[in-house]
Amino acid sequence: MMTASEKRWYRQADLVAAVIGAGWGISAAITVTVALALMTGAGVAPYVWISLLAGAVCAVYVLRMQHRLEGTSLVVSATTVYLLIFMVLTLGTPFTISLAEHTSSQAVAFVVMALFTVWPLSRMLVETPEGWLDRHEFESAIINFMYWFGYLFFIIIVAVPFYVMVMTSLKSQQALLANPLDFSLDLDKGLGLFRSYVELFEQFNFGEYLLTSFSVSVATVIVTLLFSVPGAYAVARLRFRGQAAMSRSILLIYMVPMIVLALPIYIGFSMLGLRNSLFGILLIYPVTTIPVALYMLQGYFRGLPAEVEEAGLMDGLSRLKVILKITLPLSLPAMASVSLYVFMIAWNEFLLAFMLLDDPSKFTLTRGVAMLNSSEIPRQHLMAGAVIATVPIMMIFLGLERFMVKGLTAGSVK
């Protein structure tokens, strides 16, 4: 039981719930309204004050009813309250456009906005009791709100540009000129929506760019591992003069901005005849990836039990065989995560490719996309090229993300 001296006015549960609900209510309303505007091309704006009020009321309702109703029943009842508040205060028009415009889209967006407001609030306030909150309960409620808001914020800043990029790539030149801000999709065109992608492969050799980027990225991974594995093992396991200094200075090269080295690299490669060649690219890419690979692998090698390797040495294995037969099999998660990270760096690298490659037959994918940034090439082709460059690495990352996380965290605890 809290004493009077322990009570703080800002820790009253209803007040905390109302503030959290108002903040989340306007966040959800803005998110859904922006989505509706992007998908329909209509000029829609959110009802700010009504969204604040509806969110605050629903949050207090959830707080008061969460011990009486559970799960789906609570969400359905709170959603009904939200819909009724909006319908009454907006006179049946949940968005700032006539119901005659995009009626079905507005109806779906209205229900989604209600659910997107109520359901997260039920999760945010699930551990918040009624009455006065102690410090721990108050901070938990605020942290839950920040957790959900952070997710929403980062999803928006990633999803909105990606959606605009994809929708623009599916537009025709006439549609872009008529309304550049209309990001709705005309499904009546069928496969004609992908005309820009077909033209990129037929007229701009994007198939060759994809193959070149994949080959260069894989080769960069192989070269990086060939140098970083023995280097990281030496720093982690062997004892030699300057070991501590080398261990601390591994990332110094990685910390130097590449733009600072751009001119010396360009001059040096031009003098050596390595400019405008994939061999030159394969020489310079590992320079940017080996330091971070060394840093990641040495931490993992230090986490492996040294007794296992010592047992191998006592059984007559050489140091090289210990690495090949014992250390590397135990380090597969770390090597997988390093390989994925290096592959993404090489795939997305632009500055060196833009600076060193001039022959279109040797362009990497990022260099090919930059070539599309011209007033003579339709804007939808540039967006289609950006999608082609983004989707493969995104699919690889999402498919192998669990291996990357496992490799990064493995060895962190001995």
What does this structure look like?
The chain is mostly helical and 414 residues long. It contains 18 helices and no strands. α1 runs antiparallel to α4, α5 packs antiparallel against α18 and α15 (332-348) packs antiparallel against α18 (379-409). 34% of the residues are buried. The mean pLDDT is 85.
Poorly predicted segments: none
The rough form would be described as flat
Helix segment tally: 18
- The number of strands is 0
Structural class label: mainly alpha
Computed over alpha carbons, the radius of gyration is 28 Å
Q: How much of the residues is beta strand, in percent?
A: under 5%
Could you state the order of secondary-structure elements as H and E? HHHHHHHHHHHHHHHHHH
> Could you give a short account of the major beta sheet?
none
Average pLDDT works out at 85
Oligomer kind? single chain
Helix proportion range: over 70%
